[in-house]
């Protein structure tokens, strides 16, 4: 039972990931980018991925939890073809798998698993009796069709 639940979870999570990325995986293009550190609007020095699309020099914020870049590193950027400013650094951790979605899906799966166990672990006495009576040892009369 546990293997089945884990397989179902992984399939649903994988399908969720493929169809919910921004920019969209199927309609986007990739290009190379270079990491350069610059100050953001708050005055903090953060990494930006600089890339060029149709002679436009664009940059996006490249920082993400547990992902470190150094000045001058090369990376790949996935951008929306109709709006090149909508882009993301194309990496497994950050574009494909985000920590917020991963934690939320794990918590949701555990909560739903606990609810399912709580519902099925304490059956009512009437439910137990009906299971015992319907164990298959007594033959049932054949079902009659409504229309012959």
Summarize the structure.
With 148 residues, this protein is α+β, with helices and mostly antiparallel strands. The protein has 3 helices and 5 strands.
β-sheet strand percentage: 25-35%
Order of helices and strands: HEEEEEHH
Largest sheet, order of strands side by side? 3-2-1-4-5
How far apart lie the N and C ends? Answer: 42 Å
Unreliable residue runs: none
Specify the biggest β-sheet: 5 strands, antiparallel
Fraction in helix: 25-40%
What would you call the shape? elongated
**pLDDT averaged over residues:** 88
The structural class is: alpha+beta
Q: What integer value in Å does the Rg equal?
A: 26 Å
Count every beta strand, where a strand is a DSSP E run of 2 or more residues: 5
How many DSSP H or I helices?
A: 3
Using brief descriptors, characterize the structure shown.
alpha+beta, single chain, 25% strand, 148 residues, elongated, 5 strands, five-stranded antiparallel beta sheet, 3 helices
